[in-house]
Design goal:
The strands form 6 sheets. A 6-stranded mixed β-sheet has the order 8-7-12-11-10-9, with no helix packed on it. Strands 17, 18, 19, 20 and 21 form a 5-stranded antiparallel β-sheet that branches. It has a 4-stranded antiparallel β-sheet with strand order 3-4-5-6, with no helix packed on it. It is mostly beta strands. The longest helix is centred in the N-terminal third of the chain and has 14 residues, at 5-18. The chain is 9% helix and 45% strand. The model has no long low-confidence stretch (mean pLDDT 96). It has helices at 5-18, 48-51, 323-326, 366-375, 381-384, and strands at residues 68-79, 82-91, 94-105, 108-117, 122-129, 136-141, 144-145, 151-152, 157-165, 168-176, 180-187, 193-196, 204-209, 218-224, 235-240, 247-253, 264-266, 272-274, 277-288, 291-301, 309-312, 334-342, 347-354, 358-365. Bound molecules: beta-D-mannopyranose. Residues 99, 158-159, 229, 294, 330, 333, 335, 353, 356 line the site of beta-D-mannopyranose. Beta-D-mannopyranose (BMA) is lined by residues 99, 158-159, 229, 294, 330, 333, 335, 353, 356.
């Protein structure tokens, strides 16, 4: 094996970093602890032979084969007069996590996350949490299998929603089926995820399942569209006796009269059942000279006929205002994908994708949000009709 000459150059740069003195930062004071000027570990500290294949023959252009995004959260120990750090090293294959869904599971929480890889392709990853705020992620994408048990990995998968109906958990997302279409899988143990074959024709996105059957059928909201960043879109309802064959399609609601939902709308978080109907957090989109702006809206659908909108809030509930909503890979996006409703306290946590880069979290209370939606409700004929024409 002949070592690539670039290795020596990179090594010298790294040696400079490793030998750099790290002093106490005198400019910092709080009377409690001292701070050092530089972090102790960074991604630049990673051994070069982890990142590069050093062999001239197999890596003639000295390309980085294993990128590292971050080094953090390390444990430390002194052992036989030496100090050891055991660090968390994060590869740079997943660049951003956003538009993700979570729910209570066993004694904590479980979630399905949109992990956008560095090459721009999104996949779904699983995570677990004790408090629904701090998450431990599985390293690998969710390994779906088809009905025959053979491994199935969509070409891409994004905007997952997670809904429990009876004893089964369903993940619903957007995937390629000769264009953007709805992907689905089911699991009972979060170990085996069995794909349900493409339930809808392309193009269709933003599918959200209701958490129980209505009038004996599974019910789902979705947003049929065309390819690309569609400048239109209404929410429709479909029914199925078995999660395979879908029909009885009904129109639920279209774009709104206010600026924030004047272009298109789409389903968001799984619906919450209340005494007054299904509480819906959805997204509304407007077009500006600088691109789309995504906000969160609220509506209440009839409990037995969910294609009928009883109330629809003409104000947005949340629109991009914080830096993490306004700045990111796609600026000005608040995209709801999940809620957790604590029926005891009435508290609702809303999880939403922010700027296609982060997961944001907002809280409300059932009584407050129902009251607000009703107070500022404005419905049109296309909302309140049964929607079958
Ligand atoms: C939509 C979806 C979302 C995304 C949004 C803003 O069409 O693709 O996943 O958050 O655009 O980019």
């Amino acid at each position: 094996m002949s070592i690539h000459p670039q290795y020596e150059k990179e090594l010298q740069k790294q040696q400079k970093l490793l030998n750099r003195p790290n002093e106490v930062d005198d400019s910092f004071y709080n009377g409690i602890y001292h701070r050092y000027k530089n972090p102790v570990l960074t991604r630049e500290h990673i051994p070069l032979f982890w990142r590069y294949d050093l062999d001239m023959d197999s890596n003639p252009f000295f390309q980085e084969r294993l990128g590292v995004n971050a080094v953090m959260n390390s444990g430390a120990i002194e052992l036989d007069g030496k100090f050891y750090l055991v660090a968390r090293v994060e590869g740079n294959d997943v660049a951003r996590i956003f538009n993700s869904a979570v729910m209570p599971y066993e004694d904590g929480f479980i979630g399905v996350f949109r992990g956008e890889q560095n090459n721009g392709i999104p996949y779904i990853y699983m995570g677990r949490s004790k408090d629904a705020i701090h998450w431990d992620f599985e390293e690998e994408k969710i390994p779906f299998v088809d009905q025959e048990g053979k491994s199935f990995m969509p070409v891409y998968a994004y905007d997952p929603r997670l809904v429990k109906v009876e004893d089964t958990y369903y993940i619903i997302w957007c995937q390629d089926f000769y264009g953007a279409a709805i992907g689905m899988a089911k699991t009972q143990d979060f170990k085996t995820f069995t794909r349900i074959e493409n339930p809808f024709l392309p193009f269709n996105r933003n599918a959200v399942l209701f958490p129980r059957k209505i009038n004996g059928n599974f019910c789902l909201l979705s947003r049929p569209s065309d390819s690309g960043h569609t400048p239109f879109g209404d929410i429709f309802l479909s029914e199925s006796p078995d999660m395979v064959y879908w029909g009885k399609h009904r129109h639920v609601m279209g774009k709104g009269s206010e600026w924030w939902e004047s272009l298109k709308i789409g389903g968001g978080a799984a619906h919450i059942e209340t005494s007054e109907g299904w509480l819906l957090f959805y997204h509304g989109v407007t077009g500006t000279c600088n691109g789309y702006v995504y906000s969160i809206g609220g509506a209440i659908l009839d409990i037995d006929n969910p294609s009928v909108v009883k109330y629809r809030c003409e104000d947005f509930l949340l629109t991009p205002q914080e830096w993490y909503e306004e700045r990111g890979f796609v600026p000005n996006v608040c995209f709801p994908c999940a809620t957790i409703h604590d029926s005891g306290s009435g508290k609702i946590a809303i999880y939403y994708g922010a700027a296609d880069s982060y997961v944001g979290l907002a809280f409300t209370r059932l009584d407050d949000i129902m009251d607000y939606i009703k107070e500022y409700s404005r419905t049109g004929a296309a909302d309140t009709e049964i929607g079958k024409r």
